[in-house]
Specification:
Mean pLDDT of chain A: 92
Largest interface: A-B, 119 and 119 residues
Strand content of chain A: 25-35%
Distance between the termini of chain A: 16 Å
Number of strands of chain A: 24
Low-confidence stretches of chain A: 17-26
CATH superfamily of one domain in chain A: Oxidoreductase, molybdopterin-binding domain
Oligomer: homodimer
CATH architecture of one domain in chain A: Alpha-Beta Complex
CATH topology of one domain in chain A: Sulfite Oxidase, Chain A, domain 2
Helix content of chain A: 10-25%
CATH class of one domain in chain A: Alpha Beta
């Protein structure tokens, strides 16, 4: 179906009607009990592994393909690159740290808690250096937030590029963070918190990855975090301390956080001028594009998760999120955006966190052009790629939150396509 | 302080007043910047690990003590034993699967998804056998729930036994589960769902661990679950499918679930007669004690997490939960239950899930008898050990949800004690 990689909804409908005519809907294929089945039940004939064998457990060997994957041609070196969360194989909303995507600018460093220091300087009454233990003595909070790289789905601006939701949308994870509100540290140092001031943050790694945050956000919900999903941050996520900037692009979530400087203007660092801006057709840069707009994607079926059971009952499942707040509704289309059905949302999540959606449906065995479209509590509706290109032009790299399309063929195989 | 292992609040107060007189409250000890610090910041002088090095990541080596631990003298063999979640070192509410406690009756078995079968029989119109794929085709839900072993804190009935919250309260974990409601499977099979009927569930391991569940609960919130914290269940937690019975004792959460039988009375299996009942003083057994009552415990400071920073600002942090619903309030006492302060709750969690609480306070450097007391939305208040012993006698093994006491000495070391 290579010719589908750019096709029209009209042509798709002509084709699918012809196939559907020959296919009947089925039911879940649970069988009546067969005595032969008992032969398989031999796990009761041996004793299993004891509680002393796995002080820290790993996934069972059968799940060894559920891992982060990088794309080798994407960058010159893995120390300045990205890998991808296997979102095609995950369910619910929490991302385990072990398979949550990584993005490094100069590799993941090994920094012991005892050596950790965090300096606050600049426009403060009292420049301070905090140890890790100092941070643990301050009032802390825990919240679930998503972290999305600004470049997530970026390769899709040019068309349907990568055949797998792990690669098109896997620069995202969603964890429960524990940390001290940044505003608490600003207060401890007697920072000038006038709303025209900025907070410059940098990491202890070679890249330093410095970014400027406007004071209003710094005083709102930013956390200086030291735990994720209950346990210490992993080395690759900034152990022992990273910044959590809810709803804002991942590049601001500085890892191995070492310095916070209060300034009277944005630093305009390398990371916010040479990158993380969107260049319009006329060459003007769209700047300070921090917030990740509402977005959704179907994770199953998807190119890595074909339908294997034939026609009949099935669940279409996916993820939705918004950097502006909560997801209020997700619609799913099977015909490339002509008709839509409202999906069922999993439990109402925290604000700026992943929401799981489900469409419990019947597959008639005909091809589908699957799409999901998210709405958030600001009233914003996730745009089509055409709409986004009209606004942003063709030069964009970052902040692609457009509707994604999977073409599902009569065998249940799914492919990344673009419809017009 | 061995003599404190059983002491009175009155004696404690006499002692602590004397010490407190000599100690002044401090502040968080963040320092003004010292040029020498920059010498430590050498992580910027090398390149770190690349994104191709950890397809599935593990905790950093510095955190290698944050692991499940078993108590060797507790059982004859590790294949029929327990290990403990390191709750002293965790924060927030989510438990990573890798360090979530295990309890096996005949060891953890290795059962491939392709070999998995789930039978429903007994009082049904259509006995059925489901494959793993069949389950994935049915509407599913995701919820965070705690799972607590009925024996959690059981060794403490007799007095202050184990010096560490990991060992006294670590038979608990809290994960986000994805699964199919049990009621959906009952409907598929045309089960008799009259409220006087029972659902008998058993696992594929050698113990089979059969348990009877009353129909009312089976129709309520029980899940046939296949994911935890987003990814597949770990082998030791029942891969590929386990039962999730929210708020009820962990023994009912049958792992490697292989059979569901609808019966007209409870089976009275080995697991619900020889064990998991509470024997009163007069020899009568308290039976069908499924629900885990409201409970809380301070995780830091605790014997494994002493105060190391001296007097001044500090956070007292812990966990609270109730099998009946939501935690509405947690109080903390520093004097063994004479006076109480209301703690700050972390984000309001799901029902039947762990809630994190914090008391942001000042330590004056004097000894403390730390306690936490939880309340839930039924109005229930967590009892003292005296109150619980009055109700249940001295023979009990299971369902100890009493208030726990840590004695903190002037050096900040904490010890498991009992007050009267």
């Amino acid at each position: 179906m290579d010719e589908m990689s750019k096709t029209s909804r009209r042509a798709f409908l002509r084709g699918s009607a012809a196939v559907a005519a020959g296919t009947a809907a089925g039911t879940v294929s649970a069988q009546t009990p067969d005595p032969a089945i008992t032969e398989l039940q031999d796990w009761a004939s041996y004793l299993g592994a004891g509680v002393d064998e796995t002080p820290y457990g790993l996934p069972i060997s059968f799940e060894s393909d559920v891992i982060r994957r990088n794309v080798e041609w994407l960058t010159a070196s893995p120390i300045s690159s990205i890998n991808f969360t296997p979102i095609h194989a995950l369910e619910g909303t929490i991302t385990p740290q072990g398979c949550a995507f990584e993005r490094h600018h100069s590799g993941a460093i090994e920094l012991h808690k005892d050596d950790y220091r965090l300096m606050i300087n600049g426009l403060v009454e009292r420049p301070l250096v905090f140890t890790y233990e100092d941070l643990e003595r301050l009032p802390r909070e825990n919240h679930v937030y998503f972290c999305e790289c600004a470049a997530n789905t970026g390769m899709e601006w040019a068309g349907a590029q990568l055949n797998g939701v792990q690669f098109t949308h896997g620069m995202i994870h969603n964890m429960e963070y524990t940390g001290v509100p940044l505003r608490t540290l600003l207060k401890e140092a007697g920072a000038d918190i006038s709303l025209d001031k900025w907070v410059y943050v940098e990491g202890a790694d070679a890249s330093s990855n410095g970014r400027s945050i406007p004071m209003e956000k710094a005083l709102d919900d930013v956390l200086v975090a030291f735990k994720a999903n209950g346990e210490a941050l992993r080395m690759e996520h900034g152990y022992p301390v990273r910044l959590v900037v809810p709803g804002w692009e991942g590049n601001l979530w500085v890892k191995w956080l070492r310095r916070i400087e209060i300034t009277d203007r944005a630093v305009e660092s390398r990371e916010e001028t040479s990158k993380y801006t969107d260049v319009y057709e006329d060459g003007v840069a769209r700047k300070w594009t921090w917030v990740m707009d509402a977005k959704s994607v179907i994770t199953s079926p998807s190119p890595q998760m074909p339908i294997t059971h034939g026609a009949g009952p099935m669940v279409i499942s996916g993820l939705a999120w918004s950097g502006h707040g909560q997801i209020t509704r997700v619609d799913v289309s099977k015909d490339g955006g002509i008709t839509w059905e409202t999906a069922r949302l999993g439990k109402q999540g925290d604000t700026k966190a992943l929401t799981r959606f489900y469409l419990d449906t019947e597959w008639d065995g005909a091809p589908m052009l699957l799409q999901a479209r998210a709405m958030d509590d600001t009233g914003y509706v996730q745009p089509t790629k055409e709409q986004l290109r009209e606004q942003r032009g063709e030069n964009a790299v970052y902040h692609n939150n457009c509707i994604q399309t999977w073409y599902v063929d009569v065998e249940g195989k799914a492919e990344n396509v673009e419809v017009s």
